[in-house]
Automatic annotation (TrEMBL):
Participates actively in the response to hyperosmotic and heat shock by preventing the aggregation of stress-denatured proteins, in association with DnaK and GrpE. It is the nucleotide exchange factor for DnaK and may function as a thermosensor. Unfolded proteins bind initially to DnaJ; upon interaction with the DnaJ-bound protein, DnaK hydrolyzes its bound ATP, resulting in the formation of a stable complex. GrpE releases ADP from DnaK; ATP binding to DnaK triggers the release of the substrate protein, thus completing the reaction cycle. InterPro entries: GrpE, GrpE_CC, GrpE_head. Keywords: Chaperone, Cytoplasm, Stress response. Belongs to the GrpE family. This is Protein GrpE. Residues 1-53 are annotated as: Disordered.
Length: 200
């Protein structure tokens, strides 16, 4: 009887021990599953903002790339237009100047016709002087000015000495006595040097 009670108690203890082990294993499995679920949940949560940020960056990149391509196209069009305008300016730049010279040519033609049949030399001279005055006025409006040389000290920057002769007076040494060919400046830049005679 005692032996049976002992065996029964032992079986009960073993059963409780197995039950406890099973409960512990079950609890451990539940904890592992919970940890995995939390990890999965964290990964999903982390991937959401990263994916959104990646999409935003891609959108910004596309916008910047599109803007860059537009600017490149606009610059290329501007460059082509500038080259075309520059080419036209070089080709037709003298059009305005020549157009304003045509009235002077007309005056010369009329003067030549009158010279052939004119008997009054004084009238012809006055006509030529008027044409000359008109032409010089046109040059002045184009900022073309004659270089004043006679009586001035010789300046190699604006003049070219073609001859040197004895000065009629001591104070005329090194000064321009005569101008063989008038020099001109355009916007204060020498476009033709004056050819002068200098006293020595």
């Amino acid at each position: 009887m005692n032996k049976m009670n002992f065996n029964s108690k032992k079986e009960t203890a073993d059963k409780k021990e197995r039950q406890g082990a099973d409960d512990a294993t079950k609890l451990q499995d539940e904890q592992v599953n919970a940890a995995e679920e939390n990890a999965t949940s964290d990964n999903v949560t982390d991937e959401g903002p990263e994916q959104k940020e990646l999409e935003e960056l891609k959108k910004k990149y596309d916008e910047l790339n599109d803007s860059h391509l537009r600017l490149m196209a606009e610059f290329d069009n501007y460059r082509k237009r500038t080259l075309r305008e520059k080419s036209e300016l070089i080709k037709n730049g003298g059009e305005s100047a020549l157009t304003h010279l045509l009235p002077v040519v007309d005056d010369f033609e009329r003067a030549l016709q009158n010279i052939r049949s004119a008997e009054d030399i004084k009238a012809v001279t006055e006509g030529v002087e008027l044409i000359y005055s008109k032409f010089m006025s046109y040059l002045s409006h184009q900022n073309v000015k004659p270089i004043e040389t006679v009586g001035e000290p010789f300046d190699a920057e604006t003049s070219e000495a073609v001859a040197m002769i004895p000065a009629p007076e001591p104070d005329m040494k090194g000064k321009v006595l005569d101008c063989v060919q008038t020099g001109y400046t355009l916007n204060d830049k020498v476009i033709r040097h004056a050819k002068v005679v200098v006293g020595e």
